[in-house]
Design the sequence.
């Protein structure tokens, strides 16, 4: 852990992501750290343009193509989830592995996304059906859209 001179805040997401990115041979550049920190601080899914803007605000330069590249790797490593209904990426908040399955609830009103931690047993029926069809699932995403508690009744 000799990150001498770097100002990397060691939140679990950022430090885990840095470690995993290094593991696949990615260089840890300061724009990349800014991307991770921005994702870490956001409760809303962010797209590449929003991330680029946030990185630019910190005084660093990054182009959208390299933001996309970083997001692609982060997604392959299951560090971020792609939220289809918001067309954005959200840092995984669940510590520990939940592999390539993600279950999220998305509020139609405020856009907040929360991850559910569904017992793998609950997914057994789905897995059985998939394997009986001979289908090899690479990623299972469940998105439940609706109205969150704080928006309900407003
Ligand atoms: Zn997650
Ligand atoms: Zn809401």
Sequence:
């Amino acid at each position: 852990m000799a990150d001498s001179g770097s100002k990397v805040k060691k939140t679990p997401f950022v430090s885990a992501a840095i470690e995993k990115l290094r593991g696949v041979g990615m260089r840890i550049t300061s724009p990349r750290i800014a991307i991770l920190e921005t994702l870490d601080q956001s409760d809303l899914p962010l797209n590449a343009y929003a991330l680029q803007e946030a990185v630019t605000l910190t005084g660093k330069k990054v182009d959208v193509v390299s933001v996309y590249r970083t997001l692609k790797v982060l997604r392959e490593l299951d560090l971020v989830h792609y939220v289809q209904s918001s067309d954005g990426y959200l840092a995984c908040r669940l510590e520990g592995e939940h592999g390539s399955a993600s279950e999220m609830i998305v509020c139609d009103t405020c856009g907040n996304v929360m991850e559910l931690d569904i017992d793998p047993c609950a997914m057994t029926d789905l897995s059985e059906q998939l394997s009986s069809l001979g289908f090899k699932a690479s990623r299972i995403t469940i998105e439940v859209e609706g109205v969150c508690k704080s928006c309900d009744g407003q």
The two ends are 48 Å apart (CA to CA). The first strand starts at residue 80 and ends at 83.
